[in-house]
Amino acid sequence: MAIHRTKSPQRSSPDVERLVADAISLAASGSQVEDRFWEERLNLRLMRLLKNQNQNAIDAALDQTFRINTVAFEVLADSAETLAESLVIEHDGQNWDALLLALPIVAHTRYQIPSGALPIGAVETTAAALHSSIASTESRLAIIPWLYSIDQMPHSHSQTRLLTEALATAAITSSEIKIELREMSETIAVLADPRFIIAVVAAPSGMPLFRWQAEAPLRQERGVSLIGWQTAMHDPIAALLPGCEFELLLPEAYFTNCRLADKHVRPLSIRAAVNFLESTLGVLPAGLSCVVGAFGEDQADEYRISFSLKGSPEVVYGVIWPLYDRESVANDALNDLSDDESPMKRIADALHDAGVEDVFRHAMLFDPELCDDCGAPLFPDRSGEAVHAEMPDDAPTQQPLFH
Hints:
- The protein is α+β, with helices and mostly antiparallel strands.
- It has 3 domains: 14-83; 92-263, no CATH class; 283-387, no CATH class.
- It has 9 helices and 14 strands.
- The longest helix is centred in the middle third of the chain and has 28 residues, at 254-281.
- The two termini are 18 Å apart.
- Residues 1-10 and 398-403 have low confidence and may be disordered.
């Protein structure tokens, strides 16, 4: 996926060292002429690794640049994502630009969020809505007939590139999509989660892919496109997601929209947890207490939020608020509320909006521990221990896993 956090240092291979050096050189460039020189070198190396499915080298280079040069990390990450989600393909003497799209649906429920095969009618409706609101008049589309959960999506740049190639070929040649869908991983049952439809949009090179790229009078602003998309797709998605509340985000490039959907779902996860505890335990939001702590090995990779009944030290439920590539928190600012963009401020605001008033914030960095027996994440209690979240013995037995 589009999520990358640094790992422990490894011995560098020549491929990794060259990628890191090129990314640092591009980040330090002072002109567009030099930019083009380094971009070409970097892209050639990345493309060779992608074609050879050498994801380990790409990941190791991202790890190194993340630790030593954040600007170079951004450069390398953007280049790898661009090559994975877009390409130029030739067909009948014509070059076509193709871009992999993620069509996010940010959903929450008290029951279960469906995923799986899309009926042919839903695929046709999606294609019609893309053509009418999003894609340019010259474009062609290919849509995978599957409603993806995040754990079913491609998990690397190399896998994403293969998917882009397969869909681009299908879109441009109007042929069958050659993708195996029968052995998808099981979807983890959570109360708030994004769902995705994956597609490719392609257009003759130099022509617009999207309506907001077109010249007047065909040009349509993104906001207008989003409203048209949401209007056209609301009822079809509601039929696919019974018992769910959802928001449709603007169809856009794959990696950008994966991150955007994940960020949109974080406050919904808190609201869904509060709703679940209210309906399951009969406790109002004001009757809950929360403890929030940052977890990671050397830096914060995520925040874990514990829910308890007010007046009780027992953690009955937990929610994880993950951090992504472009989010970092200094270890001396883990519980900072002075910055409106800080994760802790966003978490505190989401809890307040959900009606939870009693919130305790830890300033320490916890080890990212999991339960030895079941593998579930452990959550912070008020005393600073990481403990297992356990619903009361008299709670209903059928409970969705939640994170």
